[in-house]
Amino acid sequence: MAEAAIELIGINKSFGPVHANRDINLEVARGTIHGIVGENGAGKSTLMSILYGFYQADSGEIKVNGKPASIKTSNDAIAAGIGMVHQHFMLVDNFTVLENVILGAESNALLNSSIAKARSELVRLEREYGLQVNPDALIEELPVGLQQRVEILKALYRGAEILILDEPTGVLTPAEADHLFRILKQLKEQGKTVVLITHKLREIMAITDTVSVMRQGTMVATRETAKTTVEELAELMVGRRVLLRVDKGEAKPGAVKLSVKNLVVRDSRGVTMVDDVSFEVRAGEIVGIAGVAGNGQSELLEAISGIRNAVSGSAMLDGKPIDLTGAADPGELRERGLAHVPEDRHHVGLVLAFEENENSILGYHDDPRYLKGPLLNIDAIVADAKDKIEKYDIRPSNPRLKTANFSGGNQQKIVLAREIEQDPGVLIVGQPTRGVDVGAIEFIHKRLIAMRDAGKAVLLVSVELDEIRSLSDRILVMFAGRIVGERGPEAGEGELGLLMAGVEQKEAAE
Amino acid sequence: MDFFNVAVQTLDSTIRLSVPLLLACLAGLYSERSGIFDIGLEGKMLAGAFASAAAASVFHSAWIGLGMGILISVALALVHGFASITHRGNQIVSGVAINFVAAGSTIILGQAWFQQGGRTPALAPGERFEAIVFPGADAIRDVPIIGPIYSELISGHSLLVYIAFLAVPFTWWVLFRTRFGLRLRAVGENPAAVDTAGISVEWLRYRAVICTGILTGIAGAYLAMVQNAGFVKDMTAGKGFIALAALIFAKWKPVNAMFACLLFGFLDAIAIRLQGSPLPVIGKVPVQFMQALPYVLTVVLLAGFIGKAIPPRAGGVPYVKER
Predict the structure, then answer these.
(1) What pTM, to 2 d.p., does this model score?
(2) What is the ipTM score, two decimals?
């Protein structure tokens, strides 16, 4: 039995009335990879922030390598040999890799010697762990996979023996994620301890030695990964049985509802983000657009929903032309039966400072159902919101509550309820389950399938390949603004992954 | 030869006029690079000017004047820091408040202490920073070209002028060659990165605003003890805001800041020289137009000629520790 690298005993932490961590006990053996899974808001990140000295526990004890450790600041954690790779990278974008690595770990008041030391140290780390990165590159010019590598290097440069990674694969392509896992395995072989926080169960199964499950602030179970299953973990996370596979019948595609031809969209800097894209979506089918974030999907969605003007191209909705290059605005498109669930619910989909009922009619607020003369009919709106809350199991079930106080999954349900309940002919959905917990994902997926089965056309854009594969009847892959391939739902992850990375099929075969 | 003399004189006054701008601009640079917007440069300069003139005339010492100017200015900078760093208040509101406090209190205190309508007593020669004459300046004054350049432009300024121009390479060195500078730049871009690296965001930003206070204090002292012989109400006359404009124009870089301030100083010098004298082609131009010229050009330059100026990314946003 290996000695424990980290021991947490009876950790409690409250934020106001919210008990984020309740009597948490956790033991992580040295030289292992330990996974922590749980839904959003289960308290995983809080627990790790306590370990990293970002927050302090209200009560409880932390032991590092068997010795009690008092971790009050990040400095204490670093000194105890704990390093953390945050979900949102803690990097200065316009600094070089070297500058980021030495920040806070400079050897003296002048920079020259620190930089020289870091440069030789980076060479050593590169040799030992295969963490290759150009030390003089600016962070903002590096792809996210490399930025993450810089975060790992930062921790190792500070002498971390215990590495915590918070949702590390959220921003990575499948290939980048594989590379990360190879690095983690290498770290483990060198005797480092890795704690991996994630909600992706497949990753847990693939790489961890042991896994702990958190639910609503408590630690509900710890298992050896080899002796558990995805189904068991999902059940432990949610507290009830969860259907991981989406059940759906054959698609019965009907008439073309939405067609797009030769669409070109530029972003605000004038860079062409969508380059000559054409496709169509029929009634009764879900078309999924797969791709790594930033390959033009966002701009495509914005153009089709009328938020951003396209440069050129044409489109038809229900057989009638819509002018995406200028005249079409979101209000008009909504009236014509095209509903849009935006990717970014915080900035585009919702006004977080509004009450739930206000958000549940936003964009349809001119509908006579919600009006009393020129004024809003608050009673009707609240009653309508109550209706949706019931139908979509939105919690807490209070339509007068500020939207910011709902969890991510419930916020997403508010947006979905608003758009779906208008009974649109075409539904455009961006990242429907980003930051949404397992229970809500299941619900949202069922809703989308129900839309399809009701004969609606659904266009789904997601960076979650699993989601695309389980929901779509046809899969289009976007890379660098173009659609580089169309596949059926049976296409393998490897095949789609290569397309997403821009590797031509011919090259891949060689 | 006449043209040459006019040019040297204009450049000489360019230097004199750009010094308060340059000091204020570098002051703003420290603060804004750390992520604290400071619209209160004007107020701190004004308070520094009043404090230095008052102290110099009471204690009959330029050095005590300078020290008092810096002290008061740093005190106001700390007020700004307390509001915007510790209490995470709105940095613009706090800065505006400091400007009003400085504008009002300097007049009230000046009237209460000296009874000269808000002025401080005129400073005697020993109570001001005198011009420093470099060795040989007088000897070669009459040598053509080199003589006037050396004795007028390079030699013959007050100590504070040299401090201001030496502050440029010094600031560059601090910013880009020291640990403090690295952290300062980092905290203005991404304070969370600094925090997770185990460095105190608050202490770092406080140190930055203290630097700002020191420099605005020197700028105020220059106005009251070098450019003038005493404090006059509202004597900063918007220089703090021009310095902010210069800071944006310079894209928050020290050497650029020097050139930007020299440009604004040059426009000022031209405006003064051309007052009342007819221009070729256009003829005589009203004085007010010439006085407005630097400000008009400020707007024009900022609106169209500098390209995209990207401020420090965390600027103006109080740091709240959360995830």
Answers:
(1) 0.79
(2) 0.87
